[in-house]
Write a structure and sequence with these properties.
Distance between the termini: 71 Å
Number of strands: 10
Strand order of the largest sheet: 2-1-5-4-3
Number of domains: 2
Largest sheet: 5 strands, antiparallel
Shape: elongated
Structural class: alpha+beta
CATH superfamily of the largest domain: GAF domain
Low-confidence stretches: 1-8, 57-67, 178-189
Number of helices: 12
Order of helices and strands: HHHEEHHHEEEHHEEHHEHEEH
Mean pLDDT: 78
CATH topology of the largest domain: Beta-Lactamase
CATH class of the largest domain: Alpha Beta
Helix content: 40-55%
Radius of gyration: 24 Å
Length: about 375
């Protein structure tokens, strides 16, 4: 009977060996090549275990079943991601979720390439497609958006995952050697979350003051959108009016942009040509995209260039301006992050929704939500 070369105890032993390799990063740099070779050998062994398990027949627990594919996948101590040929995530293990900042419950169907710096995305897509076609395994250096100074090796290999109709690609991230004593990124601690919450509370206070103290309602709304850009994002777009005829009343970008004409391009855009804003205003539901790799999400400029590409957007958050009646949508607030900025957190999304409610109050009170009654 075919069985996996890795039992549960075997996976635990593999994990122990990899922990030793991770601790060995404190060794002198001259020893790094040997350590890297050892790490890659362990990865090859893990891949073979996954392949063997994927090919083994499914058996009941009472019938001496091989250790399940999902269990081995989850127990691997290195970050492991299963994708299709387009780099859409099938599943990822806990180590990969911690490394990428992508929640496991959110990951399925999201574009893995969007996690990388723009310069590395095309290479990952091309190599993933080649591996899926059967052109052989390969490895390449990549950098994550959230860890721009931490290069990784992405090792790709084809694997027949249970329940999938075509070969998928198994990707493992291996940290490249770092100098001894170099700092390693740590997950945000609870105290940092408390500090961020205090910052967001102060941001809401400043936004409320701007809405109450502006020389005119329209200028107050624009000033408030600018404050939200300062505290939450690289870009803030504010659209007012019914879904059938909204107007963009504010577009705030970086204080020192590389593309000096981009802010004007955003401001001139008809919100009806911005798919994410249209979707939010029509549905009345917020859109939170921790990873966004669709160049058409924000529409195009007057020359047909996708605004997502011009602004190098990697994460977006769009929330409706909902009137106090809880059903009427008066517009949309869209926040964008670009480059190596982290994705929006749930705490930040909640803050944006509260701020949007404040903006809606001013828009309704002063009749700024379009022609006719708000």
């Amino acid at each position: 009977m075919s069985r996996s070369p890795e039992s549960e105890s075997g996976v635990e032993t593999l994990a122990a060996r990899l922990r030793e390799l991770r601790a060995a990063r404190a060794h002198p740099p001259s020893e790094y090549p040997v350590l890297l070779d050892a790490a890659l050998a362990e990865l090859d062994h893990a891949v073979e275990a996954l392949r063997h398990t994927a090919q083994a027949p499914a058996l009941t627990p009472g019938g001496g079943a091989a250790y399940p594919f999902k269990a081995i996948f989850e127990h691997l101590p290195w970050p492991v991601i299963l994708t299709d040929e387009q780099t859409s995530v099938r599943r990822l293990n806990t180590a990969a979720a911690e490394l990428t900042g992508l929640p496991q419950a959110y990951a399925a169907g999201r574009p893995l390439a969007a996690l990388l710096r723009p310069a590395d995305r095309a290479a990952l897509r091309a190599h993933t497609a080649a591996v899926a076609r059967g052109d052989g395994d390969r490895s390449l250096p990549v950098r994550l958006q959230r860890l721009p100074d931490g290069p990784l090796y992405a090792t790709l290999t084809a694997v027949e995952a249970p329940g999938e109709r075509s070969p998928d690609v198994l990707l493992m991230f291996t940290p490249m050697p770092r100098p001894a004593g170099a700092e390693h990124p740590e997950p945000r601690s609870d105290p940092a979350t408390v500090v961020r919450q205090a910052e967001l509370t102060a941001l809401l206070d400043r936004t409320a003051r701007a809405l109450l103290g502006g020389p005119s309602p329209s200028s107050a709304l624009g000033a408030a959108a600018g404050l939200l850009r300062d505290g939450l994002a690289d870009w803030a777009l504010l659209d007012l009016g019914p879904p059938a005829g909204p107007v963009r009343v504010a577009a705030h970008g970086p204080t020192a942009p590389e593309d000096t004409a981009l802010e004007k391009a955003f401001l001139r855009q008809d919100p009806r040509d911005c798919p994410v804003a249209v979707g939010v205003m029509e549905s009345g539901a917020a859109a939170v995209e921790l990873l966004t790799d669709d160049p058409e999400r924000l529409g195009s400029d007057e020359e047909g260039t996708p605004l997502m590409v011009r602004a190098e957007v990697t994460s977006l958050l769009s929330v409706p301006l909902t009137a106090p009646d809880g059903t009427t949508v008066l517009g949309a607030l869209t926040l964008l992050r670009a480059g190596a900025g982290p994705p929006f957190s749930l705490l930040e999304a909640g803050t944006a929704e509260i701020a949007a409610g404040h903006l809606a109050l001013v828009a309704e009170r002063d009749g700024l939500c379009g022609p006719g009654p708000c």
